[in-house]
Amino acid sequence: MLYHVHAAGQAKAALTALPTLVRTALFDGGHFGVPVFFVLSGFVIAHSIGNDRVDARYVGRFALRRAIRLDIPYWAAIALTLALLELKLAVSGVSILRRHDTSAVLAHMFYLQEFLGLRDINPVFWTLTYEIQFYLLFCTLLAVAHRSGVRRLMIPFTLAAATAIVWPLFPALHLHGLSLSQWHGFLLGAFAAWVVSGTLPMRWFALYAALLVGTWTVSGEDVTLVCLATVIMILLVDRAGGLATWLAARPLQFLGRISYSLYLLHVPISGAAFHVTTRVLGGSPLAAGVSIGAVLLINLGAAQIFWWATERPSIALARRMRTR
Prior knowledge:
- α5 (about 55-90) packs parallel to α12 (about 250-280), α5 (about 55-90) runs antiparallel to α13 (about 285-324) and α10 runs antiparallel to α11.
- About 75% of the residues lie in helices and about 0% in strands.
- With about 325 residues, the protein is mostly helical.
- The protein has one domain.
- The protein has helices at about 1-5, 10-15, 20-25, 35-50, 55-90, 100-110, 125-150, 155-165, 185-195, 200-220, 220-240, 250-280, 285-324.
């Protein structure tokens, strides 16, 4: 969220006044949250599936549950973003995006905008298009592995790991909208979950991680290092016995609960909120700093309301689908 405040040029006066080290730590490096997100996503999905027997029917039901869980809030966020863009256009005559026709909105609803080369309605939405691909690919590989009778470190995932290691080395293969360039991070998280559960021996995980270090020395992509640092932290916390307890504080549980809503809303909400606070408070460094604090609180409040209105019912419906 702070990174997007910086990237959009909001509260520039306050950011300019900050010491370089503080600005870099709090604002400039926030885009590395994306690889952290991919690693955590892989860990959570592998953990949630656990020892389930995965077949074609399971993949279908899993995809349906994830769609219910993600799509209802996502579609509501698309509608809210478009409404705020229309409001901005009506108030100021300026829109940060060209107006979207029905076909573009439909493409977004089904996570196809990246494949079709369309500009995202909200600049964070591209990560969801990758997430959907990760889920489907991961579950399909599990179905293939279970059908062939191979256990957790099986041929399909050995091939998947090899692909994840090699793919970043060939930029010509990075087709627009295809998630394989980031597949290594998701797999790191999934493999870490299997290490924690005792399904995957640590030596095989360590081999995969070491080969990714080799990939990084060639590609130079810092996101790979961020993925590795994230997964090492997860395993160290598990070794210390803190996975189930260290994030149990109520403020952290609150942030975890609303994190998807905050992800979906923070860009349009921040834009609208900064427009108001700047008009009221002015553009001095002090006023801009106060605006940042106010906008953060507004985002948290909006995310909580959005969670209650869209996420809570979608989670309940997805859980009912699992029990049938």
